[in-house]
Structure to design on (220 residues):
């Protein structure tokens, strides 16, 4: 069986770079300061609704086709919130705007997903960085954020997908036809899933109801 190695695309040169940053900044600013949501609630809506994936894939319908307020409304509706989002035009100067703006930049520069970023750092942790990072150049802020994330334990994509599917390691191993030891090693990073046989990753993805790319790990 041929082993395949996968790589994450670096997105820092995408044509929607600035649009995504500004929209995610407004998304969090309006969610917290006008809709009264906790920052972490807004994060959950971003990820669970599927909006995070649309922005990661630079879908034009989301990256430029909607305002930040409209993106928030879409995400809240998808998650069943009964909240009407104001179509805000106020100047985005809050710490929450900065949080969304810089997290989007980090995602674009690193290739990490929003779920992976917020698994390692809470919304409050990222927001707090504004107090000492606000006067630094953007590239330096990104490096500070990347360093802070790398100091924290990583939750593997496979473990995250398995838990979301409600399966134990034993159940995943049995249904996917892989040894439980291999599942443990992939989840703990003792074996590199990016270098796993394509058939193994494919079977995992079928069982977990996700794409093969969802199970791969970003470059550190």
């Amino acid at each position: 069986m041929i082993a395949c190695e996968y790589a994450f695309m670096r997105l820092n040169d995408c044509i929607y770079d600035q649009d995504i940053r500004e929209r995610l900044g407004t998304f969090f600013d309006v969610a917290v300061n006008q809709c009264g949501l906790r920052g972490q609630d807004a994060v959950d809506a971003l990820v669970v609704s599927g909006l995070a994936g649309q922005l990661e894939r630079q879908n034009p319908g989301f990256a430029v086709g909607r305002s930040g307020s409209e993106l928030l409304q879409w995400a809240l509706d998808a998650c069943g919130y009964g909240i009407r989002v104001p179509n805000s035009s106020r100047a985005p100067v809050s710490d929450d705007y900065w949080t969304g703006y810089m997290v989007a930049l980090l995602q674009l520069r690193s290739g990490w997903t929003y779920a992976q970023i917020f698994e390692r750092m809470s919304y409050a942790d990222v927001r707090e960085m504004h107090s000492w990072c606000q006067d630094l150049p953007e590239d330096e802020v990104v490096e500070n954020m990347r360093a802070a994330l790398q100091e924290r334990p990583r939750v593997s994509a496979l473990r995250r997908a398995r838990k979301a599917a409600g399966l134990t390691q034993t159940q995943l191993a049995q249904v996917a036809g892989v040894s439980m030891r291999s599942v443990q090693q992939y989840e703990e990073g003792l074996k590199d899933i990016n270098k796993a046989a394509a058939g193994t990753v494919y079977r995992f993805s079928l069982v977990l109801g996700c794409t093969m790319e969802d199970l791969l790990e970003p470059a550190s």
